[in-house]
Amino acid sequence: MKIGIVGATGKAGSLILDEAVSRGHEVTAIVRNAAKLTSDNVSVIEKDVHDTNEEDFRGLEVVINAFGAPLGEKDAHVEAGRALINALAGTGIRLIVVGGAGSLYIDDSKTMTVIDTPNFPDIFKPTAGGQSENLEELEQTTNVKWTFISPSADFDAEGKRTGTYEKGEDVLLVNNAGESYISYADFAIAVIDEAENADHVNARFTVVGEKE
């Protein structure tokens, strides 16, 4: 497949890029600084996501939004998400968004989301709020094929690649140890699986993994 990855030099984006390349996909990295790329096996568009347009993505089948906003900036995720919605509108190119866990419900009653729980850290609320707003805009979009993937509450950048994960819809999951956990590496597997299989078009899903 021809896959574009926005934010391909970030913690999540770089692992998603590696996963895509390892499976033989033709990858285009959309990054602000191409010098930070660690892979030579990709095409590059050196551009801020906010400045992208339909022409930048022509010929791609999937665009993965792994844009990472600085901690505390709510609007950054919203504006980056909106830029991609506008660029991909009516093109038929699928948009897969690396989301957050804050918008997930804490149980099947669906009366409270993770971000509204008393112990949710204030420092993460702007980021989680921006990601939640991006999801809301996607849900109101009719001319883009999108998927929003929420990680578990403990999203571990240093965690091992176990090669397995479990999926759910919009309720926070826990693993066999009772932990809401997934490594970035296993999350990357889930992202590329979705790119290949298109199991959740115009929907959000979530994933949980095991610690190794």
Strand content: 15-25%
From the coordinates shown, what is the CATH architecture? 3-Layer(aba) Sandwich
How many distinct domains? 1
Which topology does CATH recognise?
Rossmann fold
Spatial order of strands in the largest sheet: 3-2-1-4-5-6-10-8
Task: Write the element-wise H/E pattern from the N-terminal end onward.
Answer: EHEEEHEHEEEEHE
| The CATH H-level homologous superfamily | NAD(P)-binding Rossmann-like Domain
Look at the structure and give the mean pLDDT.
94
Largest sheet entry: 8 strands, mixed
Describe the global form.
globular
Helix content: 25-40%
**What is the CATH C-level name?**
Alpha Beta
Ranges where pLDDT stays below 50 over 5 or more residues in a row are none
Distance between the termini: 31 Å
Structural class: alpha/beta
* Number of beta strands: 10
- By DSSP (H or I, 4+ residues per run), the number of helices equals 4
Radius of gyration: 16 Å
GO molecular function: oxidoreductase activity, acting on the CH-NH group of donors, NAD or NADP as acceptor
Protein name: NmrA-like family protein
Domain NAD(P)-binding: 7-193
InterPro entries: NAD(P)-bd_dom, NAD(P)-bd_dom_sf, Polyketide_Oxido-like
